[in-house]
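Repro:
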Amino acid sequence: MNEPARPIEHISIRVPWHDAGWNGTICADPHGNGTCVLLKNIGQRRNDDHERRLAGSEIADLPLADAPPCVAERGTFMSPRVIPFQRQHPFTQKSPAFATFQLTPQPIPAYAAQAVPFRWMSRDGAREINEQRRLGLRPELEEQVDAITGWDSSTWMMHGDNQRTILDAFFSTVQRESSLVFFYAKHSPLSDDPRRLLVGAAMVTDVNPTGAYRSSGGEQFPAQMWETNISHSLRPDQQRGFLMPYQALLAARDDRGIDISDALAFAPEGGWEAFSYVTEHVSHDLAIDALLALMAAGRTAQRLLGAAAGPLGFDWLEGQLNRLWKLRGPRPGLASVLAAFGVPQSVTLAHLVAAAGGPGTDPWLTLEQAMADPDRLGIAAKTHLTGTVRATWKALKPERRKLLELLSRFSLTREQAERFFVVEERDPALTDEQIITNPYRLFEADRGQPDAVPFAIIDRGCFPDAAVAAEHPVPAPSAMSDDLDARRVRALIVDELQRAKAAGHTLQPQTDIVTSIRARTLSVPCPVTGDVLDAHQLSADTLPPEGPLTGVPLPNGAAALQLTELAEVGAVIRKEVERRLKAPSITEVPDFARRLDDLLGAIGGDLTDEERDAETRARAEKVAALNTLYSSRISVLIGSAGTGKTTLLQVLRHTKTVDAGGVLLVAPTGKARVQLAHRVQAEAVTLAQFLIATKRYNPRTERYLVTGDVQTRAKNYRTVVVDEASMLTEEQLAALFDAVTGVQRLVLVGDPRQLPPIGAGRPFVDIVRRLAPADIATRTPRCAPGYAELTIPRRQVGQERDDLVLASWFADGELSPAADLVWERLRAGEQLPTLRAVRYDRADLFATLLTVLRDEIPELREASDEELSTAFGRSYGGVVSGRGNLYYPGGAAKKADAWQILSPVRSRGWGTTEINRALKDTFGTRALEQAIGPKRYNAKPIGPERIVVGDKVINIRNHKFSPYAMYPKDAERFVANGELGVVIGQTRSGKVNWAPNKTEIELGGRAGVKYAYRDWSDDDRAPMLELAWAITIHKAQGSEFQITLVVLPDGAGLSRELLYTALTRQQHKVILLHEADLDEVARLGSAVYSDTARRLTNLFVASEPIQVGDAVIDRGLVHRTARGELVRSKSEVLIANLLDELGLSYDYESPFTGDDGRTVRPDFTILTDLGETVIWEHLGMLSDPRYASKWVQKKAWYVANGIRPDEDGGGSRGRLVTTDDRRGVDYPAWRSLAHKVFGL
């Protein structure tokens, strides 16, 4: 009798980034590889100077001691040579029980990688897998090891016999010349996207276990090396494999600035587990999705790179796709369905069933026969087909069995199968019949789950391989009529809108959806058209009232589609806003002028007249804003950083009548909550915390919910204030509106010019647009019912600050007359009191950064070279003891915000990871030395960045600490993502007379409180900390620092909002370190580079998408002239259109260079038919004395350089014409002026 065919499974192998294609060399530019060090083994062991000296060297030629740590992390899988390597047992230094295990040779074959199934090797994972597959593990062996080591328990399987059992079981389904291996990266310089990046794929050609560790004898238990060498078929010619040309793509992005985002292949949706834990099994369906992703990304790469892409193995991909279609068979979800039905060790039974049926048969028929007679599968089947299982099967109603049979056609996980088969786990609104009638409901209904069923999984089950479909057709009513079946097309539209939602949109034009579906790489193409949508009642104007899709008319007459759930969310927000706008105002407004003076004190008598005037106007503006916030049922408070928004909230919160009614202070993130509570001096909560209590946030799925349940609404708050409201998505804001009742006033606070939220919509921006009167830009102060805007920065009195003038360049609205001068002074290398620009070459970034730090940070500026390391520590909280030692006492974190480096990215040589690493290597070597060994002075390093005492860090996960992991125990337990702090312990002292073993951190704003952080590995827990001398601009949103240094790399995908956010984080000064010319940086001030304007929404008015260059933006959020230019204000649009209507040729913001060499950019430059130059400047804020003062200076400069006012007859180089908004938008007067000036 022939041995039954073994099942085939594919595998994934994680590799680190390598800039030369994993070819067996040390990276050509190790310093530029800022992502491989995020892997713990590399981060803790890479010797940067050593690798720089050996850059490009063949690893096979180096002594073993010189091999880089990336060898152990599979960084040489494309090496054509054998890589000598040896491995030490990881616990040799941790317990005498492992002391007998010796350094063991472990050479890596050519074109091979070492696979380690970490999830299987963990005790928790092994127990779970043993429930699905009968592994034959012996738990008592682990107990023996624990008794020998004295450890209470271990994370990992420790006994060699169990280790060998697990490894044999894992690799038993990995078959030579049948299984595929997929290489992927967890971190790469190509993208900060958290998804796994597919690098390439190949056939497994050999599987070789590396065996047991060598021993000196007398070991108390055996130990296996976990690594198994996987040889593969991929070669540079790509005849039997596929490798993405990522290194060439990266060079093209750097050199030519091309967008490579569509040339990145990510691991399939639903494949998170399969592409985690270093090595895992990959199902046939996930393998097909991965091959399709590589195919699509490879085609894009080939189009972008041309010949530079090199040979790409598309023929091999096609061949493997065809092979896998047949291998997947008709029942890829059988094991998961059996688990959902309650069969123990379902994977083993599924393999038995498949083997018993033989190739080409339908396992379902074999299963039905086995349920009637288990003996057909042999004696082993009775372990799985218990009496209860068989009785339940026999009692199944026909519809239930149909559902089970249908589910087995899809490559679902066990959890997904349970969610749809187990009625008690399923959405009550979803029935068996609905799923059977439309299998795509499995995708549509599951979208809110963390491990949601992807569209492709259902699509592949509905459209299997042609041979499989012919032999084992999907039965009616589940079967599709054709590739344009209405159920399929609807699901595809939902999937497209889901992708758009992830990108921030709440709707998409119908034509764009059709185009995108037609271009998708699907197993069976879907050539949908608008006519097909009409036929299926899926177009915007034919959709039925019930269903997952809603039609939306656009202002230009085109049609758009929207997910119904987002339409409903938008309706909640819209209804609440409009209802409140119609409600009567709140009366009996308190004397806020007096309350503000009580808080701020009297205006100082030592101020100059100009400073006194500015402070008087600022307070008047604040009083008007407070009156608006108090009296309005809904209001927005907007203003840039430093204008005093938080001051107003403090006054409002502690006003007696407001306090008496109950106040809810809400912030979108934990960091923002901590800062809000500190600054307002009142209790605050995160949005998630509040919504959990009102049952409107599910922390497991991370979904914000609108329930409509009046009984669970909070009723104790008459005033609700939301800070940093620009960070809220539509779903978050709707959930908040749904969670409260009895609210007299609702206040949304933020800056609409900052980064838009991570998620769908831009509700704060849209509400601001709804509440702002058309003439708000011409009002002083800028207040109206429901709208309050602070315009006068009060971080320092006196003259307009240059840094904030520069920030306004990257925001919508009127510019200061000094804006051109600020740019000019920066170009000249002038240091301004609050602003400086320093250009750097890529290779010299760190040297330039060190020079700037020494120039700008007082402690460093005053230090000698010998004192520099100590001065660096002192600059953010360190203290020098009487003996001259640097230490970090309680209270050190008060200085954590003294200075901060900001970068737009984490990866690359100019990203935060490498900057932090370089700073640590420069200033932290002594701290590292003090944290190593049993006689260490400080707690040992944790994480891949080797975090030790004295490091500045950022907490990157919301976390609630145990009272035993903090001091004092009654301090606040919740620590928020984004909070900055300093590692202050443990350190040896009179109280700590042992080797310190706790990493204790004090966070800013929490003086005297210490939180103990544990180490983490790459695979069992997500990191909680990162070094934070440099952080990303996104992480800095909502924070302020005394001095900021902003790194602006060329080609880093900078947006207008990103730059505005970066330029408003400082209290005293900002230094720009720019790689490109400053003119290139200034160019990003155009609305075409706006992230917010690129979002398409319909909260109050549907977006009107327009094409501007390569970007599609919302016409409603930009100021566009009749000629198609983007200008800064409505007034400028009117003037531009007037000039165009009058037949006058003009240039917008065209450079004009004076005789003194200074260059400005006038609003409009008109060349008349007589050859005269007319410069037209619109002065939108002339009512502001500081603005007016700056204009007087700029006007004098014009005059000095030959541009004199028109009324004075003009000058030698042209005439100057000005208009302003002091009487509002006076278009007739402007028209008359144009006729007069141009003689029309």
